[in-house]
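Weekly structure sync - notes
Attendees: PM, LS, DV (DV joined late)
Agenda: review two folding runs queued last week.

Item 1: First target. Sequence and structure tokens pasted below for the record.
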Amino acid sequence: MGETIWHDVTVAWARPSDLQGFTEIDAAAMGQEQVDRVRQLSGSRAQGFLAGRALIRTLVRRIRGSDEVLLSSRCDRCGADHGRPRSADVSLSVSHAEDLVVVAATAGSILLGVDVEDAAAAGRLHGLGSMFPDGAAPDLAAWTRIEAAVKADGRGFEIDPSEVLLHPSADDMDPCAWSAVLPGRASPLEIATLVGPPGFVLSVAVG
């Protein structure tokens, strides 16, 4: 397990095997939707889901100073329980890669997205070249910035990844920072590619 902080966002990560003490009973205390969701999953996917909820519970308790953590994950479009997790007065985002789960959390209601990728998976990005006008796929760090940006925006890959324009930040105090301009959004999102778990590439977007 580990964590880092960027601006006011805490990013925590763990391998599901580290959090096996968090069970379906614990998920039930966070709301019936969470139980319904985990029962739709099996094996490593169920274990990864529970690990993500364990990290969420830890971070929300810390932010709020209260033991009770209730979540909603209703999809805004279809009403099913596969949407992004939401909890009152806390912004959340979750990402999974291989046997790792990452959660970003901060107080208040802001746009927030996190993405993590296994560094060993960098080769698969070559197949994405056709999605970009010049045929050149982004490197893995840039891809995590794109994914974090579209998750924070809320539209996900309804946005064409090639239309997400990344620019290095001019802030000398934050050399890891970038900005992302997305179609249909008036103001850019702030993004950082952070030092995270060894062997993985991690980016966070806020707006």
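Item 2: Second target, run right after the first with the same settings.
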Amino acid sequence: MFDKLVAMLFEIGIDTSHVTAQTTFRQLEMDSLSLTELAVIAAEEVGASADGMTLDTTLDEAARQLAHAAQPQQA
């Protein structure tokens, strides 16, 4: 999911050439609008909600959250 997240960031125009798992959205110079745009793309592409992500969330944390949210929920 990390690679998918980086691809989504690239898709919205974020420079991903030097990202690591510990990079935060703030370090990528994102703002709340670009984080919202990322959340919409994540919902469309992987069917996962990005609820709870902040500018201080690391990419590793975000990827794990998206992967968990994308898993089918059992009844």
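Discussion on item 2: Residues 21 and 60 are 5 Å apart (CA to CA).
Action: LS to circulate a short write-up before next sync.
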